[in-house]
Amino acid sequence: MRRRDFLTTAAAGAGAPALLGACASSAGGDSGPLEYLSLAWQKESIEVNKALVAEWNKRNPSVKVRYVQGSWESVHDQLLTSFEGGEAPDIIHDEANDLTDFAHGGYLADLRTLLPEGLKGQISKANWDTATIAGGIYGVPFLHDPRVLIANRKMLEKSGVRIPAAGRPWSWGEFEDVAKELTVPGRRYGVAWSMKEPVNQSVNLAMSTGGAVFHRERGKDVVRLGEADSHVIELIHRQVNEDRTAARGSLGMAGSDTLPGFFAGRYAVLPLNFSFRQQVMQQAPDGFEWVTLPMPAGRAADGGGQLQGVSPQTLSVSQDTSRKKAAMAFIAFMTRPGHMARLAEGDWLVPTGREALRDPALNTDEHGWSTGLRIASDLRASPVLGVRGYPEWKDKVATPALQEYYAGGIGLRALREKLVGDGNRILARYQR
Questions:
Q1: What whole-number distance in Å separates Cα of residue 227 and Cα of residue 234?
Q2: 210, 213, 215, 220: CA torsion to nearest 10
Q3: Is residue 211 domain-shared with residue 354, that is, in the same domain?
Q4: What is the model's pLDDT at position 20?
Q5: Is 3 part of any domain?
Q6: How many C-alpha atoms does 409 have within 13 Å on its Cβ side?
């Protein structure tokens, strides 16, 4: 689960008062505040969330909101229990990856008739697609955590390799060559892939080469592992087992586990989520120079390029709440351009809103912010979103199979048999 998206300010400010007033009157017969389940976990993010809730309550004394602290690690089970017990919070902070079963189960409100036009217009269709399930919209996508490369600046400059930029990334072939240039046998690896949770990144990066792994055929979701789907998967396997440019020891690590080796000079480049920049900034030793780079790209002619799949953080409304309009008004308030930018800055993430992406506080080269904002237009709904049975496939089949493949325990044919053969049997059960 990943912890860790903006309409013009004038339009949002002009449209909000009438909407809030309407919601306040519609909620007049209900007692008690609306409950907002927040999964903010970093100090700065919690502070911003609580400050915005306080501002809302000051402006809307008849429709107050109560901040409820949740946890990414337990949110799915917590929500399932509260939905089934009829005690779900009114406003729910979650991740798009988690919405599929809740939407199909009838636990979340379809927001299509509730969304204010201003909010709907400031977020692109590609972003709305991440929260669209069976034609309905079940969350407002507001924060992205895309994959980037975090690299040792001095090692890159000393090697003489081309330094990529958001508009001109390395190709995957260049990336393989760069990893070879940066590798010093017995002393340093060019790259460390953290693969404790390999599935989402393996599927999402397949989009850069025109793949998806999950495909739609005859109205049903199926798993396929053709050449485009497996290109990056095979590259990682090759770096670990043939080129020896990627550290085998990092395969069982989470992203944060690779940072000590990065700071010690054992790894030159780390593929990590954008939000990890905060940990790098906080933990890097004095004098350590690092840089944020875009992920490698496939050929645009093959339907890929710089595309990558994402599962954004979302704000949803419980189907059971009697105050859906008031809940939606609060979400619209939280996702005003300035507020969304503050939330993104506090969580070190990329906002989804067009106006928030232009916020001066985020448009800086410091700590790699500009890299994340410049790749925002290349982010697409992860192929796993909306797929019934995906969590079971991920846990029972894909995670162990990919870990075994990356470590060299099985070959591509065996991997394909597991992911496709076993995977489609699982998906078929959910689509009868």
A1: 9
A2: -170
A3: no
A4: 32
A5: no
A6: 10
Note the pLDDT tens digit of each residue in 214-252. Answer: 999 999 999 999 999 999 999 999 999 999 999 999 999
Neighbours of 414 (CB within 10 A): 13
Q: What's the total number of domains in the chain?
A: 2
Contact of 138 with 315, CB cutoff 8 Å: no
Q: Is residue 2, in this structure, part of any structural domain at all?
A: no
**Residue-number span of the structural domain to which 402 is assigned:** 147-309+388-430
pLDDT at 14 exceeding the cut of 60 = no
Distance CA 172, CA 305 (A): 10
Where is 232: in which H helix or E strand?
A: helix 227-238
- The whole-number average pLDDT for the span 164-169 is 93
Cα dihedral across residues 297, 300, 302, 308: positive or negative: positive
Q: Is residue 201 part of a domain?
A: yes
pLDDT of residue 432: 87
**Which residue's entry shows tokens 């992860």?**
382
Contact residues for 43 (Cβ-Cβ < 8 A; gap 6+): none
Q: Mapping DSSP to helix (H, G, I), strand (E, B) and coil, where does residue 149 land?
A: strand
Beta strands in 332-388 (DSSP E): 350-351, 379-381
Residue 315 to residue 140: CA distance in whole angstroms: 5
Q: CATH number, domain at 272?
A: 3.40.190.10
Concatenating the DSSP letter of every residue in 202-220 gives HHHHGGGGT--SEEEETTE
Give the Cα separation of 369 and 292 in Å (integer). Answer: 8
> What integer best gives the mean pLDDT of the chain?
92
Cβ neighbours around 299 below 10 Å, total: 13
Q: What are the backbone dihedrals phi and psi of residue 390, each rounded to the nearest 5 degrees, phi first? A: -60, -45
Quote the pTM value: 0.90
Asked whether the beta carbons of 347 and 146 are under 8 A apart, the reply is: no
The answer to whether residues 142 and 39 touch, using CB atoms and an 8 Å cutoff, is no
Determine the Cα angle at 104 with ends 98 and 107, to 5°: 75
Residue 281 near residue 224, CB atoms below 8 Å: no
- My answer on whether 344 and 395 are in the same domain is no
DSSP secondary structure code for residue 324 in this structure: H
Q: What are phi and psi of 93, to 5 degrees?
A: -90, 125
Q: Is residue 114 part of a domain?
A: yes
